[in-house]
Amino acid sequence: MKSLSGLVVASAVFVVTSSALAQEPAPPPAPLPAQEPPATQSNLESGGVKPPEAIDPAQPPPPTTEPTPEKELEEADKEDSGRGLEWFWLNGEVGVQHVGLDTFKESGLVDPTEIESTQTGVLFGAGVGVRLLIFTAGVRFRMASFEDFKMWTLDAEGGVHIPLGSLEPYANLAVGYASLGSFSTDSVNSPRGANVRVGLGLDWYISNTFTIGANASGDVLFLARPGSGDATSAVYAEDGSSIGGGVTGTAVVGLHF
């Protein structure tokens, strides 16, 4: 009986102890170790590119230099020719001109018994003008001396140039005034009128400012002459006109600024 009573008491003690342990609260979990905040790193930095630094509002922005129109023109001209921008030009020329006063139409401009209508002579000329990139504009004077007369022209001239390094081919067109004078026949009014010229040429730039070259051109001459009552020739007593033509070849020396 004593052993049975002891067993009952032990069982009761075990039950009470187990209930007490079950009712005690569980110990709080151990705190997690503190973690350092991750370094702020942008996607650009992680890819190997650093973002621009913040701009200080108190610091003035760096000055911006915008190209001027003149600078842009100069750079464009350098790319084309390597010489830089050209503003002014002048040149002189010497050569030979062959002219026919009645090449296309003849109506008593000269008396063929006294003056040959087709002649060849020496020509001198000079021109001056301005240039913008490949375009030129200016005026040109030419004087040609023939056996029986002299002829001079004064024209407005425009041209287009193609820079090819130190070589520069070009084409030009001129329109202006033409006059004949110093006839060997006395008492003859000088024929005068207009001319149209088309030319092709080539300049060789020895330096940025000095060129030598050649030019070939063709002229159409529209000439008229009033009659003269004092003329000994019946042809010159009446009005006369003609449409003539001429071809010219010259050597040219130029300056460019």
SSE layout:
Layout: H1 2-23, H2 43-46, H3 69-81, E1 88-107, E2 118-132, E3 135-145, E4 150-161, E5 167-181, E6 192-205, E7 210-225, H4 234-237, E8 240-256
Antiparallel strand pairs: 1-2, 1-8, 2-3, 3-4, 4-5, 5-6, 6-7, 7-8
Helices, by number, come to 4
Q: Structural class of the secondary elements?
A: alpha+beta
Distance between the termini: 140 Å
- Please report which band the strand proportion falls in: under 5%, 5-15%, 15-25%, 25-35%, 35-45% or over 45%: over 45%
Biggest β-sheet strands, sense, barrel: 8 strands, antiparallel, barrel
Q: Biggest sheet, strands in spatial order? A: 1-2-3-4-5-6-7-8
Radius of gyration equals 50 Å
Helix and strand succession? HHHEEEEEEEHE
Catalogue the unreliable spans: none
Which shape, going by the Cα principal axes? elongated
Instruction: Please give the oligomerization state of what you see.
Output: single chain
The residue fraction in helices comes out at: 10-25%
Q: Could you tell me the mean pLDDT?
A: 81
> What's the total count of β strands?
8
